[in-house]
Each structure stands twice: as structure tokens, then as C-alpha cells.
């Protein structure tokens, strides 16, 4: 997610899944041949929009991007990915997103945002969900001037959408500080119901804007990030119980809401990715997946490398392939690959009602 006074954001949902999924849906820059790809959400999928904003929720300094071909930070909260970077949709605020490059899609995500508009208030200048959707409308108007309204509608209808949001509503809102405004206003079960209700409005708005296939990721095991382990020095490496309870309440209700929306629409538009189960697999048995640890971040400082930001002064591991976490909050490139494998070909243990490969074949 992003930087906060309590914790920069929730742990691993998908930091750069957008980059990996782009390999599946992208092709030559030609509207007839390519499937456009659109990304909405927070820092887990922000590909650099916040670079163009005056905000502390940014990843534009080394060692972020250390494993990109350029070895330079791009704005993604990740060590990077050498495969398919050129195919990943550009940030919507990038001046390079113009002309026929628009036909590949766009990334509207912004680090620090949540489902609720008051989430991430401390970051001030971020692109909240309502503005991301407004930008999507603006995008369609720009493309319509390029290729006409009918072809734009077809491009959007045949596209794939990824949306990853919700974790910040817990870590940068409800649990941001003891006795936060939202925690005084709502019990946790009631707060989760509020989030699901508001998220439903966002998804229905996306559908009304003409999209045909939307991949929705869950919150994941929020309490198992190195930041949480470092914060609770008495935890002995155990996940935060309060955040784990939040995720346990939120994820099943999100899947139920998505199934209900599909029934209402009469076809499968929304696909739920159980990122919680995907990540629990290698959090509990990291060596089975080739990791040496699922508790210590590759980049950071303090206990579990979970305190503060990842900077040039931080501890930095030599082999990112051996770590589940890149920084105190976000997964490593290798962890992302495992998640994406489940999204593409996973069983109903991970994907509901079907995996992405099956959905794209429809």
C-alpha cells in the first residue's frame, strides 16, 4: 500500500501482478489484435502514477527497481521484474501514454488509497477510487477521438481489468492508530460490512463503464507482513491477530458479494482471487517454494527488516529469490510469480468461479 504513521500498508496482495498479467493480455499495439489491460487500486498495483503527485506515498528512489533491466526505480513498490515490463500498461498520468499507446490500456492505481475516501488521508495528494473511475471515463473519451466510439466500446468490453484495493482501509484507517475515528464509529464486523457495501458500488460503476471481465483480489493475510512482526516485538514472529481477524471477515464476504453481482448481471464478469490462501501456502511452508524466510524482508531495518522504509541505507539481501517479502509490506518478484500462477491456472481453492485462463477463453 503506502507509507503511514503506523505502517506503510498491508502486506502482500499483489505488488506487481499487473506486470505479469500484462504478458497474458497484451500484444502488438493494434486494437484488433490486442486485449487492453486496465488496473485500478493502491500501491500493490501502482506502476508509477504517484511519481507525478506531491505525496509521500511513492517508490521512486533506490533500491526499488533494482531488478528491472534499467536497475532504476519506476514507481512500483517492488524490486522489479525483467519479463514483460514493456507490455505492462503505463501509468495514466504518464506523459508517454498518448496516441496509439492508449490502445494497450492504462494503470490508474495510486499508492495509499482505499475503498473509503477518508482512507490514506495522511498522504493528501493521491488518486482516490472515485477519481480513478473518472480518469477511466476520460481515457475512453481520449480513445474515442482516436478510433471512434464503437471500436472504443469494443476495446473496453474485451479488455481485462485488475482491481486491488481494501487493505489500506484496515492498516491506514481502522487500525491506523488506537481508537481511530472509524474504530470508534464501527465494530470490526460492521466496518467490514461497510467496506463490502462501498466496494460493491465501485464494481457496479466499473461494469456500467462497459468492462467485461474484472479480476478482484482479496485482502490477503494482512497481519503477517514484516512490519507487523516488527511492531509487535512480543509476538515471537506470530502474525497480528487483529489484522488476521479483519482479513478473515473481509475476504469471504468479498467473494459472496462478487458471486451475487455475477448472478444479478447474469454472467461471469467478476472473478475473485483468494490471495489469502495463495499466500498462506508459502508463508507457512516457505522452503517448499524455495524461500529461506517468510518473516524477514529483503530490504529494511530493525526486527524482521520491518521498520521504516526501504532506502539506500537499509539492509539489502543479495538474492531476492530467497525472500517472500521485498520490503516491510510488499512481496518479492518471485512471490508474485507464484500468485500469478494460481490466478492463471489455479483451482477453485484459489479462484472463484474460475481461473483467469478459463475466463479469457470464454
UniProtKB/TrEMBL annotation:
<dbReference type="InterPro" id="IPR036514">
    <property type="entry name" value="SGNH_hydro_sf"/>
</dbReference>
<keyword id="KW-0442">Lipid degradation</keyword>
<dbReference type="GO" id="GO:0016042">
    <property type="term" value="P:lipid catabolic process"/>
</dbReference>
<protein>
    <recommendedName>
        <fullName>GDSL esterase/lipase</fullName>
    </recommendedName>
</protein>
<comment type="similarity">
    <text>Belongs to the 'GDSL' lipolytic enzyme family.</text>
</comment>
<feature type="signal peptide">
    <location>
        <begin position="1"/>
        <end position="26"/>
    </location>
</feature>
<keyword id="KW-0732">Signal</keyword>
<dbReference type="Pfam" id="PF00657">
    <property type="entry name" value="Lipase_GDSL"/>
</dbReference>
<dbReference type="InterPro" id="IPR035669">
    <property type="entry name" value="SGNH_plant_lipase-like"/>
</dbReference>
<keyword id="KW-0443">Lipid metabolism</keyword>
<dbReference type="InterPro" id="IPR001087">
    <property type="entry name" value="GDSL"/>
</dbReference>
<keyword id="KW-0378">Hydrolase</keyword>
<dbReference type="InterPro" id="IPR051058">
    <property type="entry name" value="GDSL_Est/Lipase"/>
</dbReference>
<dbReference type="GO" id="GO:0016788">
    <property type="term" value="F:hydrolase activity, acting on ester bonds"/>
</dbReference>
Amino acid at each position: 500500500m503506502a507509507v503511514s504513521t503506523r505502517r506503510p500498508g498491508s502486506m502482500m496482495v499483489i505488488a506487481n501482478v499487473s506486470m505479469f498479467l500484462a504478458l497474458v493480455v497484451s500484444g502488438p499495439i493494434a486494437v484488433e489484435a490486442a486485449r487492453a489491460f486496465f488496473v485500478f487500486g493502491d500501491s500493490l498495483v501502482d506502476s508509477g502514477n504517484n511519481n507525478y503527485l506531491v505525496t509521500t506515498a511513492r517508490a521512486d528512489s533506490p533500491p526499488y527497481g533494482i531488478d528491472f533491466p534499467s536497475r532504476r526505480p519506476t514507481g512500483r513498490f517492488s524490486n522489479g521484474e525483467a519479463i514483460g515490463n514493456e507490455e505492462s500498461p503505463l501509468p495514466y498520468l504518464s506523459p508517454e501514454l498518448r496516441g496509439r499507446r492508449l490502445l494497450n490500456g492504462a494503470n490508474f492505481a495510486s499508492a495509499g488509497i482505499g475503498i473509503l475516501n477518508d482512507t490514506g488521508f495522511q498522504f493528501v495528494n493521491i488518486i482516490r477510487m472515485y477519481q480513478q473511475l473518472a480518469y477511466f471515463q476520460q481515457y475512453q473519451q481520449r480513445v474515442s477521438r482516436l478510433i471512434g466510439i464503437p471500436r472504443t466500446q469494443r476495446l473496453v468490453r474485451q479488455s481485462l481489468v485488475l482491481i486491488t484495493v481494501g487493505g489500506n482501509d484496515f492498516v491506514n484507517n481502522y487500525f491506523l492508530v488506537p481508537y481511530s475515528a472509524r474504530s470508534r464509529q464501527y465494530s470490526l464486523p460492521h466496518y467490514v460490512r461497510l467496506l463490502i457495501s462501498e466496494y460493491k458500488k465501485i464494481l457496479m460503476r466499473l461494469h456500467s463503464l462497459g468492462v467485461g471481465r474484472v479480476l478482484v483480489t482479496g485482502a490477503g493475510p494482512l497481519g503477517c507482513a514484516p512490519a507487523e512482526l516488527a511492531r509487535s516485538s512480543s509476538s515471537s514472529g506470530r502474525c497480528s491477530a487483529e489484522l488476521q481477524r479483519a482479513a478473515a471477515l473481509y475476504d469471504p464476504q468479498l467473494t459472496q458479494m462478487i458471486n451475487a453481482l455475477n448472478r444479478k448481471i447474469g454472467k461471469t464478469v467478476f472473478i475473485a482471487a483468494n490471495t489469502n490462501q495463495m499466500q498462506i501456502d508459502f508463508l507457512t511452508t516457505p522452503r517448499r517454494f524455495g524461500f529461506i524466510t517468510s518473516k524477514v524482508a529483503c530490504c529494511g531495518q530493525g526486527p524482521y527488516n520491518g521498520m521504516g522504509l526501504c532506502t539506500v541505507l537499509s539492509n539489502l539481501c543479495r538474492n531476492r529469490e530467497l525472500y517472500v517479502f521485498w520490503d516491510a509490506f510488499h512481496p518479492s518478484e518471485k512471490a508474485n510469480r507464484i500468485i500469478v500462477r494460481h490466478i492463471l491456472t489455479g483451482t477453485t481453492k484459489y479462484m472463484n468461479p474460475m481461473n483467469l485462463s478459463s475466463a479469457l477463453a470464454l
